[in-house]
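Translate sequence into structure tokens.
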Amino acid sequence: MDERAAPDAPRADQAVKAPGAGAAAPEVEAADAPETPAAAATAPAVYVAPAWKLTWWRFRKHKLALVCLWVFALIALVAVAPEFFATHDPNATAASRAYIPPQTLRVVHEGRLVWPFVYGIEGQRDPRTLRMEWVIDEGTRYPLRLFVKGQPYRLFGLVPTDRHLIGFAGAGGRDVPHLLGTDRLGRDQWSRLMYGTRISLSIGLVAVALSTVLGIVLGGISGYFGGLVDNVIQRLIELLQALPPIPIWLALSASLPRSWPVERVYFAITVILALLGWTRLAREVRGRFLSLREEDFVTAARLVGASRRRVIFAHMVPSFTSHIIAAVTLAVPLMILNETFLSFLGLGLRPPAISWGVMLQEAQNLQSVVNAPWLLIPGLLVIVTVLALNILGDGLRDAADPYST
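Result follows.
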């Protein structure tokens, strides 16, 4: 006996029609059915992860960029609290302690491993040249100590304390070792390098922050509105890009009055670097806005009554935030190099300000480099910082690319 399906029972391969809809009712396909909570819970995390998490997952695959991130984090920590890492007053001078060579940390004494220490040092004047020569005193040892008491200061500018990261047992006053030597005025190079990190890094970050704001605002306005506004802004960008940057920096920096205090010169140098560094980002933002302003989500935002400012800053700019972060990371090293270059030539920051460029002024002549090569150590830190930021920026750019694998 053949089994026949009831005429009113739909087969499994037939579409289910909404009741009362008739033949014109749209079919509900299985692929369009809403996902159940159980299915959503078992879906791979990559399908529901936000954009920043996807960027971080891709960035972690770039091992060298990850190492550079930690290097930059350490440099930034020094810039935030240089007093904690310093061992001397960076502005304390002593002509009798000029050009002391670096007193390096040692872990071997009399053929056996010991706790890190530094040998003492003695000055002996050459009877023929009358030049002070410094020799190691192996009879005096200063063991390294951590979190020692020293000069009082305010941590992060708020918390009063006198604890420093490193110190040396048995050393006090002028006997405190100089890990990176001293300059012609007897100032400790290690402490000055710690304080100089704050100035050089902050100028780069602040200048990039100002140029980023200018680039996003002017580039966004140019790409969103178009027409006459776009023409005016693009001609201004072309004019600034046509000017040779180095002569302009030199002219503007040389025009700063010598009587200005350190704070005003710092602000002026930051503004000069920012005013000439926003054009590239503005061009990139304009190109993104030209492609985004016709997208469906932008049209939807306009239709629901969002203001132009909200459409630009709440909908369009966040759609390529990762690209902006990568561009900013690549711009910071250029700003640091510009500040170092201007200060090295004496047209940027000037003493008593402490920056890497100001410190490198001590190594401007060949005699200083031959007699005290350790004065070039700030240049080594500039190279490390610039390389770390460039590799970090490359890693962020690759991670932020949605088409990267």
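Note: The longest strand covers residues 132-155.
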